[in-house]
Amino acid sequence: MMRAAFHTLLSYWSRHRFQLFALVAGLALATALWSAVQAINGQARQSYAQAQDFLQQLDGTSLVSPGGSLHLSDYVTLKRQGWKLTPVLEGQYRNAGQSIDLIGIDVLTSPQVARLFPAESLGGDSDFLRGILHEPGGIVLHPETEKLLPSMLKEMQIFRSEAVPLGLAVADISLVSRLLQRPDDLSRLILLGDTGPGAMPSADSGADMRPPDARALASLPAHIKLAPGGTARMNPGTLTESFHLNLTAFGFLSFIVGLFIVQGTIGLAMEQRRGLLRTLRCLGLPFAQMILILVVEITLIAVASAFIGLILGYFLAASLLPGVAATLSGLYGAEVSGALSLQPAWILSGLAMTLAGASLASAHAFYTLWKLPILQAPSTQARGQRLLQSYTAWAAAGIGLSLGGVLALALVEGLIGGFMFLGGVMLGAALLLPYVLWSLLGMAQARTRAPLMQWLWADARAQLPGLSLALMALMLALATNIGVGTMVSSFRLTFVDWLDQRLAADLYVTTLDDAQGAEVQAWLSQQGLTVLPIRSKEMQHSTGQIKIYGLRDDELYRNNWPMISARPEAWDLLVQGRGVLVSEQLARRADLQLGAHIDLPAGWPSEILGIYADYGNPHGQAMVSLPQLLKNAPDVDNLRFALRLDPTQVKQVINMLQERFEIPRENITQKDLAKARSMAVFDQTFLITDALKLLTLAVASFAIFTSLATLWNQRLPQLAPVWAMGVRRRSLALIDILRSLLMAGLTALLALPLGLLLSWALLVVINTAAFGWRLPVYLFPMNWLALVLLALLAAGLAALLPAWRLFRISPSELLKVFSGER
Length: 822
Prior knowledge:
822 residues; single chain; eight-stranded mixed beta sheet; 19 strands; 28 helices
């Protein structure tokens, strides 16, 4: 009995192939979008984990100088006192417009060398040591990093190791100090084993290390402090957590939109098979066995759809990953491999989500099947009546979810509260949509006197149950496009204004070394040009790594600096060395207000004079006067300069700098070119967002198409009487298209306020919690109009096939409606 019943129920899909296609396509698309996002996130997190594992081995308990770099003499002195130490020097090497992060270690004393660089990947210990120490020196890097290596470093012997993070190169400290032109500087001194004056080295240096005792620490010079391990660098996974959370939320929304197709198709299939199910029950098939057969059927379809979706998701992720890698590198400084690898985690996640989604989508159909009497004759209105009765309950649930989201925003801080607010409001609005549409269509019907128009409104209400899920998907997709589009466009306008303020100088020059920098600065000053040095010092702060810049007093900064709030006399006090300007994200992370004091090492000014915008920077930033910077950090690089020129002098100055100092053309950047590069990075940042927006809207449009196409047969009993009363098939086809446009138009109008609420949440709540800066909200009515027209176009195209079938249907088919066959 079970086998016969199973084959009988499966035979339904052979007669309704389009419904099977819609079901498989809905599940596959939902799985593809979800698994693509998870694959991208998984690849990124794998890169973060590899980088963090590598860097942790070079970031043990250390001696550091909080106010700057250690000096080589500090190392010598401590070694003579009996401290067991190995030095590390870090910095960024720039050459010919290219840059790479360098870490210098003492390969002879660092116990981590064997763990960092497996011998089999480097050609053996002897070859490695010979190449790394002998002229011209050797560097170790990831194979993908080699493609981006500055030309000067390619002359050295290159050792490739996948253990080294992307965008990073490791070499002996003697070579790194020469490349960075910092022969007497050290970033930190890593402690080896039980250490301190007079301590005996551990047999396994670095393992189970005990910190020095209080007496040993008291003997340290005043400018040297003990730093626990894991504080030298910020985990890139921490910086990018908000980005991946946003991406996951977008993928989940796309998955939910895809499930609307699935739920509508399953519900329709259950309703159309009610006569078949009644017959099986009359033949003696127990209800539990029938449910089991249906569960197995849905599971088989879900598994097949999952594999299709995983294949599509892989190719989608592979096409989007390079853009995401560029975004993470430009926005967060986190390097991610551009090659996608298969990982069990996101494959199993995609399969589990497909099965869970299919179960969720079919739960309502199974519940309806259980509640309705199985011997009730099949009715084309049964499913619609059940859904209409539930509209009030849906609306109540929607209001509850919306209120829950508002409550979460008030009670839960940070990103979690923001996403709970968005989830509650958007799902709540989706549940409210059928009730609102039903009410609007009812009011329109009550105010219409023409019989045909009254039938149009009534017919739209009658078809609402079958279209409600697709319209909910369309509203969510449109609201997402409006909200995210408004966010990106607002960000773009703000970013352009910010660039105009930050890149106010006409020319930017980067010299090859400090000596050349001093020569260039002196020569440009002799020419009567305004030269503004760009000098900075990196240091660790309680909020993470920050960079302190020294500003020369000039009207360029006073007139153009993007201040958010400042004291009236801020610039005068800054020049006098009586305060500091801080970036918005540093102010938010450290909870700083005007007049408060920032925690900086002794000798630095600390009073907050102003807070300025610094978009796109994951790290905190502060500004002091140039004399204050040089007083506290006299050894900072003197390589970069901003020049204020007459626009007619720009080309002449560029030529003179190249001829006189042989500065590469890549090291001389005009203001317009710098802006163009920055905007290119900005546009690259939102490529994946734009792609997911379009894909979500495409899935919603497909949901409308499948709903209209699968409801075709159920439409004939409503259309045949109208045709019999004299309305031509051509007119009925046009009315059918008009009905689809009407429903899509109303949905688009209702999606507009939801999209604006979403944009406010993204700009004011999510963006502030994720990045530390708040953006103003701008309105773009023309973009909204374009989206409404796009929704109407999608609905019109979706209605074309049913309308064409109606236009081409033979009168005999319509007459069969009255023959008792239905």
